[in-house]
Amino acid sequence: MNVNDNDLIVSLKVKDLNEIIENLLKDKKKSMESNVLIPLKQCCKIFNVSLTTIHKWKRLGILPKVVKIGGRCYFDQLELREVIEKSKC
User: Which residues have CB under 8 Å from 74's CB, separation 6+?
Assistant: First the structure.
């Protein structure tokens, strides 16, 4: 059996196709945003709290683990966004 580009190999419901497309777009967005690091001072501005509070939240596990580069600490943007989204509920 020969298959060409115009052959239909599966049938999908519109709902299922929309879900597949939505998941692909989410994955693409995550990959585009990955590896963006937020310095601790910027995190203070985001939450409008002091550096002491940020360190306390880290210790309590409220904030994600830090990424250390050259003696400086950063948060992964996606992980920080997840914390913000969870706190809105």
Answer: 37, 38, 39, 40, 66, 67, 68
Percent of the chain with pLDDT over 70: 90
Among candidate residues 42, 78, 76, 83, the one with its CA nearest the CA of residue 60: 83
How far apart are the C-alpha atoms of 64 and 33, rounded to whole Å? 17
- Using DSSP, state whether 11 is helix, strand or coil: coil
Residue type, 12: L
Sign for the pseudo-dihedral over CA of 22, 28, 29, 31: positive
* Mean pLDDT across the chain: 85
At residue 37, what are phi and psi to the nearest 5 degrees? -110, 140
pLDDT in tens, 2-25: 767 777 677 888 898 889 888 888
